Amino acid sequence: MRSILALTSITLAAALASTAVSAQGFAVRAGAANVNPKSDNGTVAGAAASIDSDTQAVFGTSYFFDGGVELTFDMPISKFEHTVTLAGLGQVVTLKHQPISLGANWHFLGGDEGGFSPYVGLGYNWTSLSDVRGINALNGAPVAIDDSNGLTAALGVDFLASDTWFLRGEARWIDFDADVTLGGAAIGTANVDPWVYSVQAGLRF
């Protein structure tokens, strides 16, 4: 993943440096996204942790420039919900989170080639956690999980139905690690690092 981030950073830097920037307008997007944490989510309280996936409605806005450069803002309409499972204990924690991302995409075919516009992207993500609650073996326990922030990298494609309407498919990786405490004492770090797979319909104006 570090190599993907490095390649994306270099690509975007070159695109931004070489592009004559003149505004081409805004776009709004809406659809659904699945947050799929990686398979190994770290060790919490001495046990291997795993976190399930969830799908929710999402919303985004974009600002397009000449040369295929796009600035983006993305967030969920409803919070993602997950359950944390610990080896030997089963499901022990439920939580909600709201990831918000700012980034830049480079449509390397220029943005409007034949109705098909693939892109790579790089950005920054802030993830706010809420409603963290112990269940089953940790029912009623004072469990807390910190908020997280980190880099994101994206691969996606727009299918242009017209000059204004488009359909977007995207796979986005998020650097998402959060410290876990029990009664104020550190008990481990959740290494979530999810892939977020989304499909959205967009309108440019």
Task: Characterise the protein shown here.
The longest helix is centred in the N-terminal third of the chain and has 17 residues, at 2-18. The model is unreliable at 2-23 (pLDDT under 50). This protein has one domain (2-204): Porin (Beta Barrel). 8% of the residues lie in helices and 65% in strands. A hairpin with a 2-residue loop joins strand 2 and strand 3 (47-51). The chain has an eight-stranded antiparallel β-barrel with strand order 1-4-5-7-8-10-11-14. It contains one helix and 14 strands, in the order αββββββββββββββ. The chain is elongated. The protein has 205 residues and is mostly beta strands. It has one helix at residues 2-18, and strands at residues 23-36, 43-44, 47-51, 54-65, 69-76, 80-86, 90-106, 116-134, 143-145, 148-160, 165-174, 177-182, 185-191, 195-204. The two termini are 35 Å apart.
Gyration radius from CA atoms, angstroms: 19 Å
Domain count: the total is 1
Shape verdict: elongated
Question: How many β-strands, per DSSP?
Answer: 14
- Most strands sheet: 8 strands, antiparallel, barrel
Give the helices and strands as they follow along the chain. HEEEEEEEEEEEEEE
N-to-C span = 35 Å
* Helix content class: under 10%
CATH structural architecture:
Beta Barrel
Structural class: mainly beta
CATH class: Mainly Beta
Range of strand content:
over 45%
Count of DSSP-assigned helices: 1
In the sheet with the most strands, the strands line up as: 1-4-5-7-8-10-11-14
What name does CATH use for the topology? Answer: Porin
Summarize model confidence as the mean pLDDT.
87
Low-confidence stretches: 2-23
